[in-house]
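Lecture 7, part B: from sequences to assemblies.

Below are the input chains for today's worked example.
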Amino acid sequence: GQNIDQPTEMTATEGAIVQINCTYQTSGFNGLFWYQQHAGEAPTFLSYNVLDGLEEKGRFSSFLSRSKGYSYLLLKELQMKDSASYLCVYTGGFKTIFGAGTRLFVKA
Amino acid sequence: SQTIHQWPATLVQPVGSPLSLECTVEGTSNPNLYWYRQAAGRGLQLLFYSVGIGQISSEVPQNLSASRPQDRQFILSSKKLLLSDSGFYLCAWRAGSSYEQYFGPGTRLTVT
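Predicted structure of the full complex, as structure tokens:
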């Protein structure tokens, strides 16, 4: 089967670092994406991992371990505008499976 | 650069009425196209995807249908809306050579 698990909600403080974990159980793996979605808006692409390891893009980094079926999104120097849902997305063949998302609340 | 359009942005329709949502992509050829639905506070559910004109794959059996009359046009339809069809409908595209998808602005549908 295909299943993606990520926490429902997280809260962090402005300026801090937060790690959002994602585990997946599936087959035919092609890649693991992270998207950001602000309330009422469409998702926007953040990162893509196809090989094991860490991909860094400015304040955002994403890690993948294919053998463990595990990924995380790391957000540094949190800003208030980072308050949003973060979607863990698996791709395999023609399939794209979205996790339910983690709602991140950034407080002052 | 590539652009994806969706309309209308919001829609309120009575139960039993028909539906037609349109999505068009500019700046690319032969994109893979997707329709998703997102219920309030929930994840995205893939409804249909298309790899070419006239080629539609359905992921979830329901009272919705999709068509792709032109290379960069994707239409989501229903003959009779149900209350459960309410949600945020998102169209997305990706180039055949990559995996990342780009989303349109979405249509918020409320069935009353």
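Note for the exam: The first strand of chain B starts at residue 3 and ends at 7. Keep this in mind when comparing with the next example.
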